[in-house]
Design a protein that fits this description.
By secondary structure, the protein is an all-alpha fold. It is built from nine helices and no strands. The chain has a single domain, classed as Tetracycline Repressor, domain 2.
Length: 191
């Protein structure tokens, strides 16, 4: 007999597995190229079984974006120790996961609607990113690397706008080097 606690733990583990597989499939196949049937097949559950863990397809997509942020934060920001360097590294990495960039851009466009399931994710994502950038800029100001006259909040908003804008441009022209362009823009901003 499975206890409620054991059942809950299994459900959490299955949801984590679904998100792990979905991240991989979306990175490989893209937003338009991925069917939820393919994700369910790779997880080893039926489509209704897959959707049992999420309120809707859009809720699943928002969960994929959250999982992506967690992986990126662990892999890029934690390893560099600096949010600015981490953001530049994520932008370099994004060229290797075009499907996740496509999902991000598609959901970002829809998330302007406060009732959309991805709205809360984007509010949190941008808020956390901005706060991390403000902190990193402030640390760099204290070290004399950034002018004391610069407004860290303003610089953080500009960096996010540049990063998101570069992703849109890259989706139209994959020859753009998002990481290099963001790094150059940062250097110009703090000159």
């Amino acid at each position: 007999m499975t206890t409620a606690r054991g059942s809950y733990a299994k459900g959490v583990a299955r949801r984590v597995e679904i998100l792990r597989v979905a991240l991989s499939v979306f990175a490989r196949e893209g937003y338009r190229g991925t069917s939820l049937r393919e994700v369910s097949r790779e997880v080893g559950v039926s489509l209704p079984g897959l959707m049992h863990y999420f309120e809707s397809k859009e809720h699943l997509f928002a969960a994929i974006l959250r999982a992506r942020d967690a992986v990126d934060a662990e892999e890029f920001t934690a390893s560099s120790g600096d949010v600015i360097d981490g953001l530049i590294a994520v932008m370099r990495h994004n060229r290797d996961v075009p499907g996740l960039v496509e999902l991000y851009l598609t959901m970002a466009a829809a998330a302007g609607d406060p009732t959309h399931p991805a709205h809360e994710f984007f509010v949190e994502h941008i808020g956390v990113t901005r706060a991390g950038l403000v902190e990193a800029i402030t640390v760099r100001q204290a070290a004399g690397e950034v002018s004391a006259d610069a407004d860290p909040e303003h610089l953080a908003r500009i960096l996010i706008a540049i990063a998101d804008g570069l992703q849109v441009q890259w989706s139209l022209d994959p020859s753009i080097d998002m990481g290099a362009d963001l790094e150059r823009a940062w250097k110009l901003l703090v000159r």
